[in-house]
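Page 47, continued from p. 46.
Same chain as before, 163 aa.
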Amino acid sequence: MATVKIVYGSTTGATEAAAQQLAALLGAEAIPVAAADAGSFEADLLLLGSSTWGYGELQDDWASGIALLDAVDLTGRKVAVFGTGDSVGFADTFANALGILADKAVERGATLVGQVPADGYAAKDSLAVRDGRFVGLALDDTNEAEQTPGRLAAWAEQLRAAL
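Result:
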């Protein structure tokens, strides 16, 4: 059976809630990045989650998490990224953290899975959008909370198919 792990950073609880919901949907282990070690990144499918802060930065706990990720070889592994943000108030940096995590995972040798169309979001620009698609799942509980459960369920199905 394929192993699935979720490593996430959360300040207000929105990304943690998404991580826990994904863990339930995928039968995965959810690990706060602040409590992670190198073994936390060992999985057949690794999900990396972060909210976006400031001017498009990773959540604070990822400061040490990126150093851990830098030491991990993800060659041959599937990685998916997800995160939370505000697509209206921060339309020019919405979900930038996804782009940062995706780039780091690819740099470490991972195969990125779980891209989602960018249609239907208020965001105007993001480091996480490539060729009209988010590099992973972007969630906006500030303005679109009613869409979160459906987006999580659909993404979990997409990830199951990628395994």
